[in-house]
Amino acid sequence: MNKNIRTLIQALAENHSLTLDEYEALITARDQEAADLLAQLARTAREAVYGKEVYTRGLIEISNICKNDCLYCGIRGSNANCDRYRLTPEDILACCEEGYALDFRTFVLQGGEDGYFTDQVLCPLIREIKGRWPDCAVTLSLGERSRESYQRLFDAGADRYLLRHETADEAHYRSLHPPAMSFARRMECLRDLKEIGYQVGCGFMVGSPGQTPKTLAKDLKFIEEFQPDMCGIGPFIPHRDTPFRDCPPGDVALTCYLLSIIRLISPAILLPATTALGTIHPTGREMGVRAGANVVMPNLSPVAVRKKYALYDNKICTGEESAQCRGCLSARMESVGYSLVTHRGDIKKI
Questions:
Q1: C-alpha distances in angstroms, 34 versus 45, 162, 211, 251?
Q2: What SS3 state is found at 139?
Q3: Which terminal Cβ of the chain has fewer Cβ within 10 Å, N or C?
């Protein structure tokens, strides 16, 4: 690690900000020594806010039906090989009931942009969840909607909304999405969510086709300026039924490097060690936590549908990623010096 990179890392730790060119230089010059220093500083920053706690969320994948045709996604609308499903509100409530018994206090309702899940369906469902389990948070991850829809869902009791921006470079965004989708619209949705009052999450794939150190630098600068409450990043993993089927997957080490940088940009951010990290490497989530992550999201979806929510190939969907095996996941976290906790896990404002 050269002296300039060490100086950049120390400046980021102290000021939580770099220029676009400095972020690019930090990515381009990545080596093991820089990664180790970033991870050490990220752990210190995270533990100053959250101690050794790792927050858990119960993930409920409510539908793999999607109107969009994103080029990287296994549940894209044109994939005729996708075995489609949709949970009923009753199914979702049953998942929440099981999750509550397993000590989960945040439920994440995630799905494709499925036209069935209108405000008329979702608002009563959210009210029912909050009514039955008032000490729980409800997180939604259901794609782009109108500002009015986001407002109604918030008024019904939704606490958080995850909407990955995927890339902060407009040309790169166009290369990953169909013409019907726009970078400007995605950014507008994120601004709407923040203005309404949600705890907002964004995020991006690491190693997506066409990504460069310059586009990654734009992602980091966007996170610095937007100041999300949550940021989900994970390695790109190709899916066999997409145009990107033959593209190489993203890199675990680079993903962890970026997790550390994001933690230093925003010490209190909620930063998941994602399922994609656990899919691409047997101890990927532990590596993510060691790099500065502080959230894991075990799967509460019905076992019968877990394999069907296949955004990418070889997704882990049985065993230790499941909510029913909290003890296994807890042991994994303890193996790297951290402990799972069962409360809502809201962001701590500093």
A1: 16, 30, 21, 16
A2: strand
A3: C
Quote the crossing angle between the two packed helices 32-50 and 3-15, to the nearest 10°.
10
Q: Which two tokens stand for residue 128?
A: 């029912």
Round to whole Å and give the CA distance between 76 and 304.
20
HSE-CB of 149 using CA atoms within 13 angstroms = 15
3-state SS assignment for residue 323: helix
Per-residue pLDDT reduced to its tens digit, 152-179: 999 999 999 999 999 999 999 999 999 9
Beta bridge partners of 107: 58, 138
Q: How many residues does the chain have?
A: 350
pTM above 0.90, yes or no: yes
Angle value at C-alpha 125, between 120 and 131, nearest 5 degrees: 130
Q: How many CB atoms lie within 10 A of CB 30?
A: 19
Whole-angstrom CA distances from 289 to 57, 68, 272 are 15, 32, 8
